[in-house]
Amino acid sequence: MGDSELDAIRQRRMQELMAQRGGQKGGAGGAQSLEQQQAQEEQQREAAERRQMMLARVLSSQARERLARIALVKPDKAKGVEDVILRGAQYGQITEKVSEERLIQLLEQINEQTQKSTKVVITRRRNVFDDDS
């Protein structure tokens, strides 16, 4: 998406919110909480848009596609990878676009760090009447 498209979407959404607020001015406290909820949802949408725009700047198109596919299956893992990439970009550790190969390396590193090892221990209780002698 281009910047002009995002600006147009934001403008349309703001107009919709303004129109809704205009129709609710006669309401009491319930309308206020509804407005607060809508404002909060709008902030969350804007934050998500900013996040996607930053990822679009940092990731190559193939890497974005792979990350989108991962998000369909494991949204938590995809969000974690996005966080790592964005943090690296903010601190200047990532200076060029992340390729699909680099994304795969990041995924493997994260998998190694978060891998859980399962250990099963079976302890058998001795019967009181067993005689070892």
Helix/strand layout:
Elements lengths: L2 H21 L5 H30 L2 H13 L1 H16 L9 H15 L19
Helix pairs in contact: 1-2, 2-4, 3-4, 3-5
Structure at a glance:
The protein has helices at 3-23, 29-58, 61-73, 75-90, 100-114. With 133 residues, the protein is mostly helical.
Explain how this protein is built.
With 133 residues, the protein is mainly alpha-helical. Helix content is 71%, strand content 0%. The protein has five helices and no strands. α1 (3-23) packs antiparallel against α2 (29-58) and α3 (61-73) runs antiparallel to α4. The model is unreliable at 25-29 (pLDDT under 50).
Question: What labels describe this entry?
Answer:
PDCD5-like; flat; 133 residues; 2 domains; PDCD5-like_sf; damaged DNA binding; mainly alpha; 0% strand; Helicase, Ruva Protein, domain 3
Distance between the termini: 81 Å
Q: What order do the helices and strands follow?
A: HHHHH
Radius of gyration: 25 Å
**Any idea of the CATH topology of the largest domain?**
Helicase, Ruva Protein, domain 3
Number of helices: 5
Output the CATH homologous superfamily of the largest domain.
PDCD5, DNA-binding domain
Approximately how much helix is present in the residues? over 70%
Into which percentage range does the β-strand content fall?
under 5%
Strand count: 0
Q: Please indicate the count of domains.
A: 2
The geometry reads as: flat
